[in-house]
Amino acid sequence: MLKRKARCFEPEYIEPIFPLRVRILAALPGGIARLKKMVPPPNGDAAPDISRFIPLKEGVTPEGVAYIQSCMLVDSDLAKNLYVPIMRQNRSLALQQGMCKQTIDAGIDIINRCADNTLSVEEMVDAGLITCNHTVALRLKSGRLLLYDPQRITHTMKAWIERLGGEVAYIVSPNPAHCLFTQSAMQAFPRAKLVASQQAADKMADLGISTAYNYSNPDRLNALWQDLVDEGVIPNVLAGDPAQIILLYHEKTRTLLEADLSYRDAFAPPKGLITPLMKRKVEIADTTFSKAWRACVCEVSPNRCSPVYRFASFNEKSILCQLAKPHPEYVVDREAMKISLGLLLKLPINRVLSAHQGEIDPQRWADAVLAEFAWL
Ligand SMILES: [Fe+2]
Description:
DUF4336
């Protein structure tokens, strides 16, 4: 596995150009910790609920794993601090690669307006400034439930979980970026134990929520492993990966749960019905923004398919890497991640449930992962 070689590159050359104040602060002693503290606590509930435009959609895999699809608007802070600078920075490169100037400029304009909070909810939905997410409810051997990547706890979502039956025993925030609704999930199911990365645990601590299993800590990951193995679930955190994703393997159904490992279908259209309120752009993947995002964020990267910030996060000297690392001593290690991924791909997998893409055929998923990480 992972034998294909991408063209040679040095990740050092791809550091997003952050605003000057961020670069100055990052260079000061203790600046990275201060930058991390400046990020506001995650609160997905503050963003508008768009389920009236795109209703929640329940699903069950052929192996019997239940999940529910919901969509949310692109976060304006993420747009301002990551998408806008990267898209501006890579505009010329994308043009050199033959991308249409009109599409790129229109895409950058729309993400700029998202960053400035000048778009209405309908305009954002129409422009495809949404991501689809899948909350998975894994049935444990004890009959209890584990929620992987819970999204907004609407009445529909709560009723779906209650209909499934069984106590919610674990709530899993699958990576540092996926904790917008962790607080509300913990409030809805206060007896659940929280599983989260160091960064998500820090954010939750600021909100008064304690994390039972901080999986960035090897001892706590081991404790989680021991508790979940008895429940038929194997946790997996890729060694050396700055993205700190926890993947879960459900033995009985041979299902792998993942969040943000593969980005092949980022901003893919939601599956299922879209209400008449969302009048024009139903094919989210074909929106101008989505095309421009792929051109300026993915197609300019060395393998032409992974987000360029995924490469920058492997450069220990970059601000992005230092912000992504769970703690300053954490060692980002491409070789360790390559070995770890190879072992993951050897698991007998019947189905992959991806946070953004939903159900994926395991071969299609493995092909995507190989294409995106052959450079390791
Ligand atoms: Fe994500």
